[in-house]
Fold these 2 entries.
Entry 1:
Amino acid sequence: MSELQLNGVRKSYGGFEVIKGVDLDIKSGEFVVFVGPSGCGKSTLLRMIAGLEEITFGDLTIDDVLMNDVDPSKRGIAMVFQSYALYPHMTVRENMGFALRFAGVPKAEIQKRVMEAANILELGPLLDRKPKQLSGGQRQRVAIGRAIVRHPKIFLFDEPLSNLDAELRVHMRIEIARLHKQLAATIVYVTHDQVEAMTLADKIVVMRGGVVEQVGSPLDLYDDPANLFVAGFIGSPKMNFLKGMIETGEGGTFARLPDYADARIPISLREATPGTPVTVGIRPEHFKEHGTASLDLTIDMLEHLGGETFAYARHGNGELVIIETKNGRGLKSSDHITARFDPGCALVFDESGKRLR
Amino acid sequence: MRNNPANIASAVLTYGFVGLMAFLSIFPFIWMAFGATNSSIDIIKGRLLPGEALATNIANFFTLVNVPLVFWNSAKVTIFATVLTLAVSSLAGYGFEIFRSRHRERLYRAMLLTLMIPFAALMIPLFIMMGKMDLINTHIAVVLPTIGSAFIVFYFRQCTKAFPSELRDAAKVDGLKEWQIFLYIYVPVMRSTYAAAFIIVFMTAWNNYLWPLIVLQSNETKTITLVISSLASAYYPDYGVVMVGTILATLPTLTVFFFMQRQFVQGMLGSVK
Ligand SMILES: Nc1ncnc2c1ncn2[C@@H]1O[C@H](COP(=O)(O)OP(=O)(O)O)[C@@H](O)[C@H]1O
Ligand SMILES: [Mg+2]
C-alpha cells in the first residue's frame, strides 16, 4: 500500500527553484532516507511533507488524501528536528504531552502515552527534568519520544544525529533502526551521511541540486548506480574514476583504459559509440589478486586499519586510485604494484555521467 | 614583575577613575539620605551629616501631599504603560524578525529613525492630538504615546534573532496557531528578555516627567514626579521635605531593580540558551 505520494512536486523561493520536480512513492512501514550533499534540497522536501513549507507545484498525498493545504498537525506526521527543538521551559513530560494537550486528548490518555513512550526510550527517570539538564543523546531521545506519543502515521527526521558525537551517533542509529522495527512505523529520514543512509534505509533517495538522481535499496544503489554521481556518492572510500575510451576489437566492444597497461571492460555496443571518451569506475574493494585486468601503480600512502588496508596509489598520469586489500600489511610506500581487478565489476559512464551497460 | 612602577601607576589610575565615578553616582543618594534628616536651612548651608529633622520632614511631606493619591496615580500610569508597552512592542519586534514581507526592512528603518526625533519636537503636536481626542488631564493621555516604543521594538527584534526557528516549526507540527506560538512558546522562552525590558520600561514610566507635566493639569491626576518638582519650585521650597519625597519616589524602582537584577543582566546578555 502506498502511504505517501509526491507527484511532480516543486518548490521555488522567489524565482529560484530549489526542488525541481520530485515524484516519489513511499509505502507503509518503509524506512526511506533522503541523502545528498548539503544544500541539495533534502530538508526543503521533508519540510514540504511536514507542511512547514508550501508546495509551489505538484501534489502531496498521504493515504490518498491531498495534503497540500492541510495544517501540519493534521497530516498524521510527527517530526524530529536537527536541533531537537525541545521547549526549554517545559519538563520532558510536558514536552512530550504538549501536542496531545493541544489536541484535546484527555489527561489520563496523555499520561498513558507519555509513559508508554518513556518506557520504549528508557526516559522514565528523566521525565521531570528540563531539557537544559539533559545530555545531547537524552535530548535526542526526548525529541523522538515527543514524536512517538502522537502515534503518527509517518515519522519525519531531519538530520537527527548530526549534533551527536561519533560514538553516540552509532548508538542512536541502532536505536532508531530498532524503533522502526518495534513501531512498524513509516519513516522518512534526511541525512547527508551515506553511511547512515546505507545502514538504516529500506529505500534510499539520492538527491542532487533539487533533483532525485536515483531511488533504490542500499545494495541496488551500491551495485547498480544509474550515474556517476550516485556511484561516487554511495560507498566509502569512494569509487575510483579513471579516464577511458570506447573501442571495438576482437571479442566485442570495450571500455579501454589507454593509459594503463591492460584493462578492458566489456560493455554492449548498443549504448556505446567507438572512439568516445568514458569514465570507468572501480570500487576499492573490487581489486582482487585473481582479476584478469590490471593497473600498474606506485603506492603513495597506506592506511592500515588492522582488518584491511587502504592503499592510495598513483599512476604515471597522476590519477589517484584507492585500493582496499585484506593482505596489505607487507606493503610499503613507493612500492610498485600491479593491481588486478575483475573487469566484470567495473562500471562505465559516458561523458554526461550516465551509466553505460 | 607585578610590582613594577608602570603597573602600580596604571592600577592607581584605574582605581582612581573607578572611585571617582562611583563617588559621582553615589553622592546624590547620600545627599538625598542626609538631606531628608536635616532642615531646609541646614541643607542650603551644605550640611552633609545626619540631622534631627527627619520626623518633622516626613510629617510636613504628608500634610503637604496627598501621598496615597499621588502614589496611586503614579502606579496606575506606570503599570498600564509597562504592560501595554511590553505587549505591543514585543509583538512588533517578534513580528519584524519572524515574518517576511517586501516592505519589512524599509518600515523598520523608518521606525528606528523616529528614535532620532527629540521629544520636544513631538510635544506640541501630541498635545494637540490629545486635545482633539478630549484626553487632556487623563492618565490615558500619559500612557498612550509611550506604548509603541521604537527602542523596545528594536531590543525585542535583536533578541528574537536568537529564538530558534525550529521551535516555531515544532510548535506548528504540535498544532499551535501563530498567536499560541507567541503566547505559549515565545513569551516563556524569552522571559529574561521581558525582564530586562520590564525594568527599562518601568523606570522610564515611573520617572516620566516632561509629558505628564504637560498633559496632567489638576492635582487629582498628578504623579509623584510632578508633585516633587512642584514642591522644589515653590516660593520657599523646603528641601528636607523634597528629599523625603525623592526617597519615597525612588523606592519602587530600587525595589524592582533589586529583585530583578539577575534577570536583567541575563536579558542583556541574551536570553535563549
Ligand atoms: N527560506 C529560504 N529562502 C530561500 N532559499 C532557501 C530557503 N530555504 C532553503 N533555501 C535554499 O534551498 C536549497 C536547499 O536547502 P535545504 O533543503 O536546506 O538543503 P539540504 O537540507 O539538502 O542541505 C539551498 O540552496 C538553500 O539555500
Ligand atoms: Mg538540511
Entry 2:
Amino acid sequence: MNGWHYIGKVEDIPLQGARIVAVGELGNIAVFRSHSEQIYALADRCPHRQGPLSSGIVHGDKVTCPLHGWTIDLASGEALGADHGCTRPFAVRSDENGLYLQLSSNDG
Amino acid sequence: MTTSPPKHLLVVGNGMAGIRTVEELLALAPNSFHITIFGAEPYGSYNRILLSPLLAGEKNKADIITHPLEWYATQGITLHVDNPILSIDRENKSVTDSRGQSHTYDTLLLATGSHPIIIPLPGQQLPGVVTFRDMKDVDTMLELAKEGKRAVVIGGGLLGLEAAMGLLKQGMQVTVVHLLDILMERQLDAAAAALLKSALEERGMQFYMPAQTAAILGESQVSGVRFQDGSELPADLVVMAVGVRANIDLGKAAGLHCERGIVVDDQMQTSDPHILAVGECAQHRGMVYGLVAPLFEQGKTIARRLAGATDHSGYTGSTLSTRLKVTGIDLFSAGDFLGDAACDTILYQDPSRRIYKKLVIKNNIVQGVVLLGDTVDGSWYMELLREQKEITPFRQQILFGRHHLGDAGHGATKVADLPATHQVCGCNGVCKGTIEEAIIKKELTTLEEVRAHTKASASCGSCTGLVEEILAHTLGGDYIPAQSKSLCRCTPLTSDQVRLAVRDQQLTSVVQAMQQLAWSSPDGCPSCRQALNYYITVFYPATIQENPADRFVNERLHANIQRDGSYSVVPRLWGGTTTPAQLRAIAEIAERFSVPEIKLTGGQRITLLGVKKEQLPAIWAALGEQELVSGHAYGKAVRTVKTCVGSRWCRFGVQDSEQMGVLLEKQLWNSWTAHKYKLAVSGCPRNCAEATIKDFGVVAVEAGWELHVGGNGGIKVRVTDLLCRVESMEEVLQYSAAFLQLYRREALYLERTAPWVERVGIRWLQQQLVEQPDYRQQLCAEFIQAHQCLDDPWSTRAQGKLGTQDFLPLTSIPFRSLENVA
Ligand SMILES: Cc1cc2nc3c(=O)[nH]c(=O)nc-3n(C[C@H](O)[C@H](O)[C@H](O)COP(=O)(O)OP(=O)(O)OC[C@H]3O[C@@H](n4cnc5c(N)ncnc54)[C@H](O)[C@@H]3O)c2cc1C
Ligand code: SF4
C-alpha cells in the first residue's frame, strides 16, 4: 500500500476550521482548512496537555488550542511564541476527487 | 594536554538554589559535568515563592513548576525525585540515598534549603497543625480549608501573613497570633506595622497580639490554641509560620564546619574542598539568608568555579529587600529601617490614603527604607542603598520618587544608564541585558510577553515598573503602554476604539471590520476575531452573518469543553426550578448516553459531565423533547438566575422571588454578553440566594425590590452597588433588561460587570438608568429586539439546521499501527 488514504472532500471541512479523521490505534488526526484554502493535518493532541486542536480557532496558518491557548504552527506542528513542544504533522494532498492523508509506511 | 572524561557533579536538593546553580553551569560550560540531582520532593523544581499565590488560588501547580521532569531528560541530567540523601562518606566521595544505594561524586553540591521551625509545644504533633514550606503543606492546608472554618496562624511575619491571606481567600476565618505587637517586626517599624494591620483587618483578617502560645489543644485532631495567659482560641487548622532554620543535617553529620548554616568561603566552598553549598543551607561571612536574591549570585559563583574560571573574586554578600505578596497591599522594606542616633529619618505619612514612606539616612546615604501603599520607587531606593549613593543633590525631593526628579539627572540612575549586568528581577535573577536581548531578538512588545520569555517580574511583581521602563526604552516609539493596550497584535487600535468603530462605521461583519480598520494579519487572531464578533452581535443583531470559526469552541459547539477534551451539558432550569418529568428525562438521557458524572452546579443547575463531542446533537434532541433548552453554561452569555423559595414557601419571604427569577431568566436568557453574566433573586434581605455577589442581584424588601449591580464571586470577590429600589415586578424586568443592554453596549469585550461598574461608577449608571426613564425604556426595547433575533441554539442544531456534521469525524481509517502518534 502506498500509504495515501482518501478522507473526503475539501468542502466537508469548514473554512478556518477542522474535522477529525479517526485512525484506529493512531488516535485522531485533525485536518485543517485555513483561510487561504491550505489543508494541513496534525495529530489532534496539543503538545501541552493533549487538548483537541481540531476544536481550536484557526487563524493564518496557525491554530490556538482550546484548553490553554497554546498556538501551534499548522505546517510543522511546532508550538509558537514562548511555548515549546511539537505535535506530529501528516502529509495531505488533493486531486479532483478530494483529499488524501498519508500515513507513513511505519504506521501501517 | 589530554581531555579527561567529564567529572560527576552530584547535587543534593532540587529546590531553587540547586537548580539555579545547575542552570548557570549549563549556560557557562555545557557538557563539562555529568550531573545528578537528588530531590526529597516528588516533583521537578518549582518556584517556592509562588506557594503563597498557590494557596490563595491565584495560581495552580502547573503555573509554579519551573522545571518539569522532561526538562531534566532533555538536559541529560539524572534526576532522582522523592529520594532524599541520608549520608555522605567524604573519604570515599560518595553519598547514600533513602533506598540504600550509594553514588560517588567528584564534586558535591549541598542545596538542602531550610527546615520550618516547629515550636515544641504540647499538641504540636496533632493532625491539623501544619507548616508553610512546600507544596505538600499547601495541599494539606487546602484540604483542611475545605471542611474547617477557623484557622489560627502562629507568626505575624511575611510567611504568616501570606498564609493567613491565602486561607482567608479559601473562605476560612483566620486569626493571626503574634508574639509582639508589631507585625513583620524584622521589616517594619511600629507605624507602618499598624497601618498594615488595619489594611489587613479591613480584608477580614483578625489578630491576637501580643500573645504567646502555650499549647495546641485537641484529642485526635487540632481543636484550638491556648495562650500563656490561659485564654483560648478555637481552630480547625493551625499554621506554624515562625521562621526557618538552615537544614545543615547532612553537612553536620559528615563533620563539615557548621554554625547556624554550613560555613562556606567566598567561593562557596565548605570545609571540604570537594563539597560546596548554596542557598539557605549555607552560611557566608556570618550571614544565613532566607530569601532568593542571594542564590543567583551564589549560583553564578559556583558555576564559574566549576567551569574553571580563575579571574573571579567570588561572592561577597547581598543586600536584601522584602515585599509582601498579598494582592492589593503594597509593602516594601529593605536595609536598616530603624536606624540609630546618628541617622536621620525622612517620613511621609498620609493615613487616609494609607500611604507611609520612610527612609533612614546616614551621612546622606540611604540605610533603610519602608514603603506601604505606594511602592513604585522601591527598586530605586534599593539601588541607592545597594550602591551607597550620595543623595545630597535630591535629598529634598527624594520621597516623591525618581520620576519627580525630572530629566536633569540629579545623580539618579535612569534605565538607560543601568549596566546590562544590573539585576532587575530579584526573584528570577534576570539582568537588564537579558531583557533587552529578548525584546529585540524575539520582537516583544508587551509586558506579558517579556514575562513569558524572560520570567522578569513574573513572581512577586516588584520590578514590574522597571521592566516596563526597559521595554519602553528599548522599543522607543513602538512601545504601547499597558493602559492603552491595543486589542491584539493585528491592530494598533484599543478594544474600545474597535468597539466605537463597529458602532459608528456600520461594520457588520468580522471580515469587513478587518478590511476597513486595516488589520495587519489576513484573518486576525483568536483575540480580535472573538472581540469583533461580539461587538457586531451587540450592535447589529438582526443582520450579522456569524462565522462559527470566529467563536471559541464552547460557543461554537454550545457546550463546555473540559480538561480531557470532553464536554459538559447543562440544560436550563428556569430560576433553578424543575419538574419530575424533566428530572426523569435528564436521568434517562444520562443513562442512555452513559454520562460519566452528574453534578449540581453553584448556579442551581444540573450538569452532565464527560459527554463526547459526537454525542452532543443526539443529547440535545433528547433534551429538547422535554422542552429543555440550552443553559449557556459555556459562553460569554447570560448564565443563570439563582433564586430562593421566597414568599411561596419560606416563612420569612416578603416577595415571590421564585417567580421573579423565572420571569427574569425567560426575559434575558440566550443573550451574548462581554463576559459571563449571572443573576440571583432573594425573597427577603436575609439574601439566601447570595444576590449581592452577582452581576445583577435582586433582593426583596417589604415595599418591593432592591436592584444591585456589579457583584462578583470569583477570585476577586466584589459586593454589588445598590442601583435603586423599585416597587413592581414589571419595573424589575425593565431595569434588568436596560442595565444588561447598557453593559452590552458600553463594556469592553471580556470586561465583567464588576470592573466595568467600578470604571464608570454607580453614579453614572444611576444617571443613565434611574434619572432618564426614556433612555431606560429605549435600552429595554433595544434589548428585546435583539433578543428576538435568536433561537435556542440546541434545538436549531438538533434539528440539523446548522452543520451538525462538524461534530462527527470526517471519516475513519481502520488501523493497526507499529508506533503511536507522537
Ligand atoms: C511560602 C513562601 C514564600 C516565600 N516568599 C519569598 C519571597 O517573596 N521572596 C523571597 O526572596 N523569598 C521567599 N521565600 C523564600 C525562598 O523560597 C527561599 O529563599 C528559597 O526557596 C531558598 O532556596 P533553597 O534552594 O536554598 O531552598 P529550597 O527551595 O527549600 O530547596 C531545598 C530543597 O532541598 C530538598 N532537600 C532537603 N534535604 C534534602 C536531602 N537530604 N536530599 C535531597 N533533597 C533534600 C528539599 O526538599 C527542598 O526541595 C518564600 C518561601 C516560602 C516557603
Ligand atoms: S432570602 Fe429570605 S425569603 Fe429567601 S429563603 Fe432566605 S429567608 Fe427565606
